[in-house]
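Tip: read the tokens left to right.
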């Protein structure tokens, strides 16, 4: 069975539609369960979720409230409550494809060597497509599109938390999400799923990109404001600092080298985009790298 874990916080405008898509699946209801983990929401998220549970007795769906504030606490609560052999995590503003459950089920059955997968995440902008967006900044809107072919996540590439799935035994073997990382309430720190995937990569576990496992990810206009993007960049830097410091000196040195390379790459892209007249994209690349470094060094 597949356990779909939906961690939610103050998302009354999206959680209902998110759950509707999970209710309309090509796979039979016995194939999966849905776990709604409410991270102490203060809007109507709880009421909408509980109403959905009551109105869908044919589904294996459960509501839980996790009072410890933080995305990682909610994810870990989902792992504790889950009964499936496969654990799928999606965001509360992600709407799954009709064949979502079926695609996850088929892939893990056919690839016994695979420990985790990341699916395709397509951004759906509520407003206009931002002029400053480039393929190098798609992670800012939790988007992931590596094409139509299955491939391994190699190097520094890894799945994005809006659409990822694991064999349950992964968490039994390597532990759950690090509660020192991840978002808390309206804060914009992260790094929790990255840290898990780094653990798996160190142990040579197979992690694949599976484009058939698809979701649409809603991007409201407020997530495209400079204030939000700046907060996100600083949050990324702060989270990375916390992660590497706890990992020891070797990881600190490795991170310093990788950030130096990223700065160099950003400068190259800045000049290339500028030469092409794409000044908005060039400038945003530079600003975001500065904000990440600010979070890392402050």
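Filled-in amino acids:
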């Amino acid at each position: 069975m597949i356990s779909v874990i939906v961690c939610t916080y103050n998302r009354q405008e999206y959680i209902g539609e998110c759950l509707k898509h999970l209710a309309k699946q090509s796979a039979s209801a016995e194939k999966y369960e849905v776990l709604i983990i409410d991270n102490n929401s203060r809007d109507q998220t709880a009421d909408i979720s509980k109403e959905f549970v009551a109105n869908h007795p044919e589904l294996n769906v459960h509501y839980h409230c996790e009072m410890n504030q933080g995305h990682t606490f909610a994810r870990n609560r989902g792992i504790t409550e889950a009964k499936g052999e496969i654990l799928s995590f999606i965001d509360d503003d992600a709407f799954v494809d009709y064949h979502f459950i079926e695609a996850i089920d088929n892939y893990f059955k056919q690839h016994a060597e695979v420990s985790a997968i990341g699916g395709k995440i397509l951004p759906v902008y509520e407003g206009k497509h931002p002029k400053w967006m480039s393929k190098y900044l798609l992670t800012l809107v939790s988007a992931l599109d590596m094409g139509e072919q299955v491939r391994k996540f190699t190097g520094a590439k890894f799945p994005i938390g809006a659409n990822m799935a694991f064999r349950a035994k992964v968490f039994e073997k390597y532990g759950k999400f690090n509660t020192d990382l991840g978002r808390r309430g309206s804060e914009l720190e992260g790094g929790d799923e990255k840290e898990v995937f780094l653990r798996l990569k160190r142990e040579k576990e197979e992690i694949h990109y599976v484009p058939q496992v698809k979701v649409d990810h809603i991007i409201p206009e407020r997530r495209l404001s400079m204030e939000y993007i700046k907060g996100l960049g600083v949050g990324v830097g702060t989270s990375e600092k916390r992660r590497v410091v706890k990992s020891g000196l070797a990881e600190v040195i490795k991170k310093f080298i990788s950030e130096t390379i990223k700065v160099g790459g950003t400068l190259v892209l800045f000049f290339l985009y500028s030469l092409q007249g794409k000044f908005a994209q060039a400038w945003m690349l530079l600003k975001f790298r500065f904000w990440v470094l600010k979070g890392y060094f402050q």
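The longest strand covers residues 206-219. Residues 228-297 form one domain.
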